[in-house]
Structure to design on (589 residues):
């Protein structure tokens, strides 16, 4: 005999025909459980669904918002990996649910204003709740890119940002970068700009991070940004910002051009001689090289600013070669000085 | 392999009853030897295929199979065999079948064989009018939990190969299974009374429960309800 009554714990769990109904409040509680296994299971249970177009409950979205901070700070890398895998499913589901809700509301609206019922209003509220969640998520992820954030937060934010970017929510991202799911017929009903000035700047700063995987992911994301300026900002912000220092909140001067980033990376590399900085230096050069179109006429002002070399790929290569030759000359004169002030591995990696 | 088995079944069907019985018994004994002694996976896969085909083609019934299995294990039926004993035999058989799920090569066929057995058991329960088939906890629950507790590393295979089809056979059975795992206690974050197990096993049981709930959600058996579902609006899509 089925002890159905036993399951009706305050009607939080009940059997309805062939479906077991569980109140979302019970599942959301699991996200703040002391056991990491239970926390992961809770997140997975909230996100899983037989139908990808089924909307999440407002409670489910709120609980994810409340708990994503500590889920992204898990010390166990496998748990973080699992969390990110669930985040991928979450984003797929939100996209599909929003697409369906938007379609349903549009159909109802087309049928005439008089037929708009309270159900359509509620669907609209639900749609807005999903969209508000995506906007919050982008803010949350961008906050996770700040230079002072721990490694775990950096990695999770970068990977989740990559997932969001690949989902096709930002139309400015070329289709070649989109995931298979992002190319399917289900499209986001609204659009979001991923590469805000703050995120762009944070990614540029992370190219000089101490961790290889952080640098690599930052560059991968920068590659997706079609509108990354080579020359923007310019003279107003010439501060040399060391990695792992706190940078100010987004301001008018937050934008930094690739040329300035390269100059900054070069300065950091030469002053520290650290291999991670050398790697970051070579990665920034790679980004600049890919962005540079061979322009016959230098951009106005570039010659005066002494950055005409960045206008052509040959110019970039020539500059690296000059750097190398300069370092070799120094080495011929004073090897100690060359080792400490003119390391060449970053330059060699850039040429490669 | 399947064609060979179907041919064998056809041959057996047209034999004299005595010859047929002897043939089936011989085949079953050889098959059970492989299954019970956990021989290599190639033989195991074939043996499981033999049993599932025999059951699905109606050459043998679950009762016969469970009896032969019990005899083979030298746990012969006592003369005053009762319904509880029959259930015990079937549970032992299911436990042995579940033990093949841990191996990726045999997981699928073992799962199929279990499903055939469970469906046949459910039919016996419905058609039983002599009280031979006991009612209560679904027949597969105890052997399933026991098998996973013995081989927790096989949980993923169970989750992929066994859970989805097993749970969808009957939602009430699935719910009973969740109750047996302590659904109430775990979801209320009270791990104190799950099956009265030791602390290390409680976590494992909770993991089985979450895996089962997730499969339930993915197959549509479990649905979460929120504030919107109480109004006239159905956001379930």
């Amino acid at each position: 005999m089925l002890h159905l009554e036993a399951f009706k714990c305050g009607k939080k769990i009940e059997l309805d025909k062939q479906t077991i109904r569980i109140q979302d409040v019970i599942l959301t509680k699991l996200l703040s459980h002391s056991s990491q296994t239970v926390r992961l299971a809770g997140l997975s249970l909230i996100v899983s669904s037989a139908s990808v177009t089924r909307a999440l409950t407002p409670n489910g979205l709120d609980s994810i918002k409340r708990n994503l901070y500590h889920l992204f700070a898990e010390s166990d890398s496998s748990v973080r990996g699992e969390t990110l895998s669930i985040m991928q499913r979450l984003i797929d589901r939100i996209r599909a649910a929003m697409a369906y809700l938007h379609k349903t509301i549009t159909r109802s609206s087309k049928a005439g204003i008089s037929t708009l019922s309270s159900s359509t209003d509620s669907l609209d509220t639900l749609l807005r709740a999903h969209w508000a969640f995506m906007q919050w998520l982008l803010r949350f992820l961008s906050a996770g890119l700040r230079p002072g954030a721990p490694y775990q937060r950096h990695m999770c934010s970068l990977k989740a940002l990559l997932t969001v970017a690949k989902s096709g929510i930002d139309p400015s991202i070329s289709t070649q970068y989109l995931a298979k799911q992002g190319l399917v017929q289900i499209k986001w009903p609204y659009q979001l700009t991923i590469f805000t000035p703050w995120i762009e700047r944070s990614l540029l700063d992370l190219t000089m991070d101490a961790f290889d995987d952080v640098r690599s992911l930052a560059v991968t994301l920068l590659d997706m940004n079609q509108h990354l300026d080579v020359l923007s900002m310019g003279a107003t912000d010439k501060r040399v910002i060391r990695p792992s220092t706190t940078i100010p909140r987004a301001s008018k001067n937050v934008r930094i051009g690739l040329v300035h980033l390269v100059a900054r990376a070069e300065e950091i590399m030469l002053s520290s001689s650290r291999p991670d900085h050398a790697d970051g230096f070579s990665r920034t050069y790679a980004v600049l090289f890919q962005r540079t179109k061979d322009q016959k006429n230098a951009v106005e002002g570039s010659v005066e600013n002494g950055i005409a070399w960045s206008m052509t790929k040959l110019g970039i290569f020539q500059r690296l070669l000059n750097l190398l030759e300069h370092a070799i000359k120094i080495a011929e004169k004073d090897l100690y000085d060359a080792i400490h002030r003119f390391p060449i591995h970053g330059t060699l990696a850039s040429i490669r | 392999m399947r064609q060979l088995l179907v041919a064998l079944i056809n041959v057996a069907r047209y034999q004299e009853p005595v010859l047929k019985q002897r043939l089936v018994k011989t085949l079953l004994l050889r098959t059970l030897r492989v299954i019970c002694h956990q021989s290599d996976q190639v033989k195991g896969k074939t043996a499981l295929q033999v049993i599932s085909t025999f059951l699905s083609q109606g050459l043998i019934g679950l009762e016969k199979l469970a009896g032969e299995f019990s005899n083979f294990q030298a746990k012969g039926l006592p003369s005053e065999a009762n319904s509880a004993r029959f259930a015990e035999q079937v549970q032992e058989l299911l436990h042995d079948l579940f033990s093949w799920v841990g191996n990726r090569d045999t997981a699928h066929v073992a799962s199929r064989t279990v499903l055939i057995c469970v469906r046949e058991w459910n039919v016996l329960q419905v058609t039983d009018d002599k009280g031979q088939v006991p009612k209560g906890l679904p027949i597969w629950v105890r052997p399933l939990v026991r098998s996973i507790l013995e081989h927790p590393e096989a949980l993923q295979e169970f989750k992929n190969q066994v859970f989805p089809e097993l749970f969808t056979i009957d939602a009430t059975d699935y719910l009973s299974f969740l109750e047996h795992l302590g659904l109430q206690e775990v979801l209320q974050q009270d791990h104190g009374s799950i099956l009265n197990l030791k602390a290390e096993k409680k976590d494992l049981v909770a993991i089985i429960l979450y895996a089962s709930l997730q499969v339930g959600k993915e197959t549509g058996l479990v649905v979460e309800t929120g504030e919107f579902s109480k109004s006239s609006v159905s956001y379930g899509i």
